């Protein structure tokens, strides 16, 4: 390993407290990326979320691409002759396809 994972001596928090804080933040509706910024130096919180079955099954990047596709489809329902969103739709769907292949392996 390039680094050694050690708890800093100045941190006076127990793993149980961290678990409680993570669950509290998730229940408040804070996104996982915001929680990870909050706990970046404290611990790895993904196992806690997996253990409590709160971790999303769809990766964040794939979720946001799917969200973009839905928005573009709604736009194209009302603006069928709009060519630029059709082009972007093809590109985003291609990215989704490649990401799903990546996550399946």
From TrEMBL:
It comes from the Eukaryota. GO terms for molecular function: small ribosomal subunit rRNA binding; structural constituent of ribosome. SUPFAM superfamilies: S15/NS1 RNA-binding domain. Keywords: Ribonucleoprotein, Ribosomal protein. The keyword Ribonucleoprotein applies. InterPro entries: Ribosomal_uS15_arc_euk, Ribosomal_uS15_N, uS15_NS1_RNA-bd_sf. Belongs to the universal ribosomal protein uS15 family. This is Small ribosomal subunit protein uS15 N-terminal domain-containing protein.
């Amino acid at each position: 390993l390039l680094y050694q994972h050690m708890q800093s001596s100045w941190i006076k928090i127990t793993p149980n407290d961290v678990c409680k804080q993570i669950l509290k933040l998730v229940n408040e509706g804070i996104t996982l990326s915001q929680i990870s910024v909050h706990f970046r130096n404290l611990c790895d919180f993904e196992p806690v979320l997996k253990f409590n079955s709160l971790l999303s099954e769809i990766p964040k990047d794939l979720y946001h691409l799917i969200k973009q596709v839905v928005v573009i489809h709604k736009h194209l329902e009302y603006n069928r002759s709009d060519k630029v969103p059709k082009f972007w739709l093809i590109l985003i769907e291609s990215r989704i396809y490649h990401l799903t292949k990546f996550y399946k392996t």
